[in-house]
Amino acid sequence: MTLDWSNKFSRRSKAMKASAIRELLKLVDNPEIISLAGGMPDPTLFPKETIAAISKDVFINHGGKALQYGATEGIPSLRETLVKEGIKEGIKGLTVDNLIITTASQQALALSAEVFINPGDTVVVEAPSYVGGLQAFNAFEANYITVPLDDEGIRVDILEEKLKQAKDNGVNVKFMYLIPNFQNPAGVTLSLERRKKVIELSHQYDVPIIEDDPYGEIRFEGEKLPSLIQLDSIGNVIALRTFSKILAPGLRLGWIMGNKDVMRKFVIAKQAADLCSPPSTQYIADEFIRHGHMESYLALVRKTYKKKKDAMLEALERYFPEEVKWTKPKGGMFVWVTVPEYINTTEMFKEAIQEKVAYVIGSAFYPHGEDTHHLRLNFSLPTLEQIDQGIKRLGNLLKKKIH
Ligand SMILES: Cc1ncc(COP(=O)(O)O)c(C=O)c1O
Questions:
Q1: Do 72 and 114 fall into the same domain?
Q2: Is the pLDDT score of 279 beyond 90?
Q3: Minimum-distance ligand 1 atom for the alpha carbon of 104
Q4: Least crowded by CB within 10 Å, which of 43, 212, 332, 361?
């Protein structure tokens, strides 16, 4: 008789659902379909020759260490490099004890969930929020307080109201999960005034902040704003950073900065998860920064993505019906589209596939999947021609639905 696995699975694994995005994206596996759905960097930009040369040097000169197990916290030289970069950025009092390396930000999110969330615990998330963050928190059976966004990021007035309500009801909110720069999926950036307010609320209500910032360096215009960890004076912010969008996601490398006692907890949780992130890619990333390649690579990324973003906004103006609205990001990789409420973007997805264009359904970005009149578009991966054609196809479909 075959084994009945269902009574072996943990409660947690029974609660896990495959990400709606990843399920839908299986339908996109057809070269004729123009995908505006993914969240990937443009692979034609990857600094392949530079990484090849650095890798050769790393394996020849540090091969014994690069191919060996490493410290769970990360290799010392990369941590020191990132501390220097963090201090340059303006993070006060940062030391190597406040910084650990992770297997990119997705691991940092999973570890955050493991370190902080008991089943039924409450966390605050932006609505919409990053689907991978929600998936990580869902696995640990989080409860959500959702706070909407507008063009200046999270609505701090509503955040304040909800934090007060939670306190009055005796709820211990474990953290707020915020993506302040060029948010995924909404593309919006938290204003300076609201950043200060968020920090103030964190202090007032004793709620830590998990600041997830993969896109801050991919700014096309305007002044860089101080990060939340930079603005915080008392160590309430745990900052997640990643090499995925500023170098290459295939390295699977990121880092966390924050209170050193909290970092110790993360290290213990990480030990059980993977012992260490690959020392080989840590050496490569470290040498890439130390040899000064990051700025020129980022300049190329910013220039290319800006061109693609402009092409997408122009195509949206040209092909989309006027009843449809969208965000105008100043950086990052995404545009967030709002359609009239009578159009259901989940139902429309299959028709879009028939028209050979794909997007990500808005509902994937809400913890309770309640939203049906948004969709996310990505401009970093498609070519300029694909952007124009893809938006044209989607625009034609939307025009048929408008009444
Ligand atoms: C907001 C946000 N956080 C985290 C991640 C995870 O990235 P990685 O694990 O590659 O660092 C992504 C990836 O798209 C993201 O958009």
A1: yes
A2: yes
A3: 11
A4: 43
Say which CATH number the domain at 306 has.
Answer: 3.90.1150.10
Whether residue 172 sits in one domain with residue 316: no
CATH number at residue 252: 3.40.640.10
DSSP 9: S
For 61-113, give the secondary structure using H, E and C. Answer: HHHHHHCCCCCCCCCHHHHHHHHHHHHHHCCCCCCHHHEEEECHHHHHHHHHH
CA terminus-to-terminus distance, the chain? 57
Of all atoms in ligand 1, which is nearest to the CA of residue 179? 1
Q: Are residues 229 and 178 in the same domain?
A: yes
Say how far apart CA 84 and CA 88 lie, in whole Å.
Answer: 6
> 307 and 229, same structural domain?
no
Closest CA to 207 of 234, 247, 188, 231: 234
Across 340-351, average pLDDT: 95
Q: Would you say the CB of residue 105 lies under 6 angstroms from ligand 1?
A: yes
pTM of the model: 0.96
What's the Cα-to-Cα distance from 376 to each of 59, 169, 200, 333, rounded to whole Å? Answer: 40, 35, 31, 10
What pLDDT is recorded for position 11?
Answer: 84
Q: Is 261 within the bounds of a domain?
A: yes
* Ligand 1 atom at minimal distance to the Cα of residue 106: 9
The candidate with the shortest Cα–Cα distance to 117, out of 135, 95, 105, is: 135
| DSSP element (H, E) containing 256 | strand 254-257
Which among 9, 6, 39 is positioned nearest to 22, based on CA atoms? 39
Q: What is the DSSP letter of 117?
A: P
DSSP label of 232: -
> Looking at the structure, do residues 167 and 197 belong to the same domain, yes or no?
yes
> Residue 209 sits in which domain range?
66-290
**Identity (one letter) of the amino acid at 251?**
L
Rounded to whole angstroms, the Cα distance separating 307 from 299 reads 12
Encoding tokens for residue 250? Answer: 């295939």
Q: 249 CB less than 6 Å from ligand 1?
A: yes
Pairwise CA distance, residues 213 & 216, whole Å: 6
